[in-house]
Amino acid sequence: MSSAHLFSSVQELAAALAGGRLSSVELTQACLARIRSVEGRVRACNSFDEPGALAQARESDARRAAGRARGPLDGIPVGLKDVIAVQGQPLTCSSRMLANYVSPYDATVAAKLKAAGAILLGRLNLDEFAMGSSTENSAFGPTANPWDLTRVPGGSSGGAAAAVAAGELPLALGSDTGGSIRQPAALCGIVGLKPTYGLVSRYGLAAYASSLDQIGPMGRSVADVALLLGAIAGHDPRDSTSLRAEVPDYGAELAVRRGPWRLGVPREFFGAGLDPEVGAAVQSAIAFYRSRGCEIREVSLPLAAEYAIAVYYLIATAEASSNLARYDGVRYGHRSAAAKDAVDLYFQSRAEGFGEEVKRRIILGTHVLSSGYYDAYYLRAQKVRALIRQEFVRVFQDCDALLSPTSPTAAFRLGEKSADPLAMYLTDIYTISVNLAGLPALSVPCGFTSAGLPVGLQIIGQPFQEAGLLAVAAAYEQAHAWKDRHPSL
Amino acid sequence: MSSNSDLNIDYVANLARLALTAAEKEKFARQLGDILQYVEKLKQVDVTGVEPMAHASPVYNVWEADAARAGLPVEEALRNAPAQRQHMIVVPKVVE
After folding, report:
1. Closest to B76 (Cβ–Cβ): which among A104, A211, A366?
2. A195 vs A181: CA distance, rounded Å
3. What pLDDT, on the 0 to 100 scale, is given for residue A4?
4. Whose CB has fewer CB within 10 Å in chain A, the N or C terminal residue?
5. pLDDT, average across residues A390-415
6. Under an 8 A CB cutoff, do B32 and A367 touch?
7. When comparing pLDDT for B2 and A324, which is higher?
8. Are A204 and A107 in contact (CB under 8 A)?
9. Which CATH homologous superfamily contains domain A7-300+393-484?
10. B18 and A328: CB-CB below 8 Å?
11. Do A313 and B35 touch (CB under 8 A)?
12. What does the domain layout of chain A look like in residue ranges?
């Protein structure tokens, strides 16, 4: 397989596999060769299991030869953010705490991908325990942006976004708690979708903030992301927060949903702090929809714009401080050799196992839940969260979807924001309210800055309207050639 | 809402079972002070009569059939244990 196929769509790869022009072993070897050639610069993968991947590929080829191919993902390599369990593979969360952890079972999404015949290749880097917006918080070192190796890929699913953008893998799964799929997708010039809260099972996802976390697909086109979403969505009795929602054939829906749509533009998402080049690219995408007969309505989300970050950093850190209490050095994970006694084992194991941002969030979350502060911080944040959700419900009475920038800037430089946590938190200003309200949203490439850095358009939808959301994105994507540009590595 | 000077980092680090160095305490106290000052703005919102929202799903109680099913074999469940002996996790002595 020539390197010209590295950026092929999954549809093209599936057709080549079905037509016998390509084998899964050849495709997997091509991904492995690309990983070996660019990883020294991109550093997207924490680990990859070459013999295991080739064994899966041989099984896929054997199924196909016997006429038992399982569908369009059979034989296609998919990378997983290193927070999603695959039996027998490492699961590190990019933390020293879990540096030697090996998953004893499959996450539901991993089991579903295996059942679809996908090749689970590559454990992708992230900000430790998904806490960050640049992948610089990884205990194993930062991932670089394939478009400019001196810049961040975004985060926390930065390894997943960079691997897909660099042609190392055609598809990946990330997780999104406050923008961790959409923001790196925007900064790396790919498509990333955060599903409705409850559409995709989190069984086997290392928990960060459980009322916000969702697993979602990342790929180089809307159709590829639609295909991967269909493979992972659906109710799972092992995740009590997963809902019994109907899972349509998202790819087929793309062909029949053509608009025009009523599209809202939240005016507060275009204010101070938005880079002018990013704003111009998003405005020209809005003009495109208008030219296609869509009704563009200016809408207002004042509470989401002003308070979402404050609400998020109270709720997410509170939940994180509780979720991460399980890492105590007793049953699994890092255990300190320096502990004086049983209780000191907790203190020392956690001090040695966690990195700085994780410690900072545990401290903040513990404080806001502590006696005397709970009502003032956590409970109040939950009430403002309810008001933010109501604000979206009102706006969606007159709109099918909302359009905004995904991130206020294109990719920033490695180290640029790492000394100032609050400045880093503000990079999620347009994505965070979506998680608070439990809505689906995606980022689709909508141009490049003059420095050649990708810009993402965020499209926000109503709960369980992923099919419509994907159709709105596809209408834009088909009329533009952004996805045909690739980084030169 | 409380002022940022209320963050007692020693007290909170103890609750979180997290040993911090003097340098970490100094740095976190300053940074978290900034963040707590930032979240003060939530005081501006009138939340009278608003029900707190714990999560975004319209689900409340989820019941599962009380049926036995196979779990992980002991060897598998203990594979990641830092220290084990005779199918048990070894920990420092907890009683004198």
Report:
1. A104
2. 10
3. 56
4. C
5. 97
6. yes
7. A324
8. yes
9. Amidase signature (AS) domain (3.90.1300.10)
10. no
11. yes
12. 7-300+393-484
